[in-house]
Amino acid sequence: MGDESFYYRLVVAYDGTRFHGWQENAEVRTVQGELRNAATVLSENLAIVEGSSRTDTGVHALGHLVRVQLDRNHEPEELQKSLQGITPDDIEIVSCERTSAEWHPRFNAVAKRYLYRIWNGPRKSLFDGETSWWIRADLDVEAMHEAGQSLVGRHDFASFRTRSKDEPEDTVRTIHELKVHSRGQHILIQVVGDGFLYRMVRNITGTLVDVGRGQISGDQIPRILEATDRREAGITAPSEGLFLVEVSTDSDRALHCTETDPFLGR
To answer: Catalytic residue numbers?
Structure first.
C-alpha cells in the first residue's frame, strides 16, 4: 500500500449461488475475490478487503459488513457508485461510508442475524429454487418454533457444528432470539446470536425441520445440546436457503427477529 491508507465501511449483498463462499481462493470464484478485484481498479496498489463472516458456498447475504482499504481517497458516495459499476451483477454495494483502521467488521462484530428460507409446498417454487429449500411434506411450524426456544441462551453448541480445520475449540455461543414462522408457503427461520460455529445455523435448521416432520420430538433438543455430539442432532440444511441478513458492531444496537421476510421486504 502507499504511505497513506483510506478505510471504507461497506454493506454488501450478494446472491451466493455461483460463488464458492466469501473467502478468497485463487482457484474458484468468491465474493471477497471479486470485491478485491473491483476495489483494486480504484487503488494504486492491491486493495485489502475484509469481511464480517466467512459465508459458505451457495450462502447469500443481504447485509455483509466489509472493510475496504485503499491508497486513493474517494468520496464514499462516488466509491459506492464506482464499485457497483465494476462488480458483477450478483453483488450489490448497499452502502459505503468512511471508517478507520481501528474498526474491523469481524473482530468488532457483537451480533449477527441469519435467515433460513424454506418453500413448503407440494410443487417446487418456480422462482425461489436458488434461494430456499423445497420441502414437500407439511411441516409443523409451531412445533419447530417451540423446539427452537430451547436453543435460546448461552450454550455449548458442539452438537450443532460441523468440524472445520479453522474452527476454534470453544463451542460456547449465545443465541439471543430464534423465531420460526410462516409467510404463505414460505417458512422463515431467523436466528440472532453473538457468533456462530461452522454450519451451525444450517444444522439447527435441519434439526428443527426434523422436528417439523415429527422425526425428532421438540423436548429432545435440551438432550441434544447436552450431548455435545454432532451425531445426536438432525440433518444439515442445504446452503441455498441461508442468508446473512445483518451484522452489528454496536453493542448499543440490538438485533431482533422480525415478522417479515427480509429477502422479500414484506
So the answer is: 56
Same topology between domain 6-99 and domain 111-248:
yes
Cα 26 to Cα 29: distance, rounded to the nearest angstrom: 8
How many residues are listed for the chain in this entry? Answer: 266
Nearest C-alpha neighbor of 113 from the set 257, 261, 265, 264: 257
CATH of 6-99, one of 3.30.70.580, 1.10.3720.10, 3.20.20.80, 2.60.40.1840: 3.30.70.580
pLDDT tens for each residue of 62-96: 999 999 999 999 999 999 999 999 999 999 999 99
Residue indicated by cell numbers 458516495: 77
Q: Is the confidence at residue 266, as pLDDT, over 60?
A: no
Instruction: State pTM to two decimals.
Output: 0.94
Distance CA 162, CA 242 (A): 16
Q: How confident is the model at residue 260 (pLDDT cuts 50, 70, 90)?
A: confident
- How many of the other CB atoms lie within 10 Å of CB of 213? 16
**Helix (H) or strand (E) segment spanning residue 35:** helix 31-41
